[in-house]
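The record is kept unedited without comment:

——
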Amino acid sequence: MTLKLGTEIPGTSADGNITTLWVPTIKDIKAPTMAELEAGTDISNYVMLGGWSFDPSQDAVSDQRENAVQDFGAPGRKSAGDISIEVIDNTNTEHQEQNKAVTLMHEGASGYIVRRRGIATDTPLAVGQKLTVVSVICGEKQVINPDASTMIRSKIPLFAKAPGWESETAEISNPKG
């Protein structure tokens, strides 16, 4: 099948269509259950626009044969890259009781960042939806110096840990878990 030049391809706005959860435990990151996800905390309202940084990469394994005139390759080790999340930080403010992202993701906390894209944030999670799931341990909160007309916020460095991550390849499994 050939796509004809000028064919309009629809797209979906990211605005309002990203959900981010902090989930304490997931047995199988390829198939988190509804029960596991519902035990988590929706931190979407704390995450700053563009504040999620997750840039996985993969090395190439060189496969050079002496009888070939071409070099070949194979997929190699994967890296999660520098992972972090920038969030609203209400420490010491009149809103300090509303500071779940900072409170949950304190230094040394382990859990899972779960992200769903392409579906309105207020749409409930459902079996079969695709997710990104990243198993992390949290580093020391980094206070972000404010610019004019900005919210008080912090960046939380995250470090991938076993069992690793699934980049929109995890699928919500049965509701009972």
Summary: The longest helix spans residues 34-38. The CA atoms of residues 3 and 9 lie 10 Å apart.
